[in-house]
Every structure is written in structure tokens, then in C-alpha cells.
Design brief:
This protein has about 70 residues and is α+β, with helices and mostly antiparallel strands. It is built from four helices and three strands. It has one domain: Rossmann fold (3-Layer(aba) Sandwich), CATH 3.40.50.800. The radius of gyration is 12 Å and the shape is globular.
Amino acid sequence: MNHLNTTKIRSFVDDRDESLGRKIREAEVEKIPVIVIIGPKDLEDEMVSVRTQNGEQKMRLNQLKEFILNNTSL
């Protein structure tokens, strides 16, 4: 998260006590362009799930910043 903030990419962690599905639906309604999902196993494997309007994909954590910069207009 700090790494994204240093590149002026707005980000936040949704740590509310809600279901994952509800959090994703709310983010989609708010038109958040990139939703990053990191579970405990993902964190251990240094992987993330990334959802955009074009679908979902998994990638290595170190690829996330470049992906966001290349796929959003800031």
C-alpha cells in the first residue's frame, strides 16, 4: 500500500467486517477501476487477484504497480 502511495496512486484497504462479495459489489457500484484482492494464501505466495472492467486475473505482487499505471488514467 505504501508503495502505491509513493507513486500518487490513490488506494485504500477495505477492512470492514463485511463479506468479500459485498465489498466487491460496492466497489463496482462506486466505479473503482481496479480492485485488488489479497487473501492470506495470496500474501504468502506474493500473488494478488486484480479485477477490472475487462475481467479478473492473478499476478505477482511486484507486477501490480506497473499494471495499474498501464491500465488506468490517473
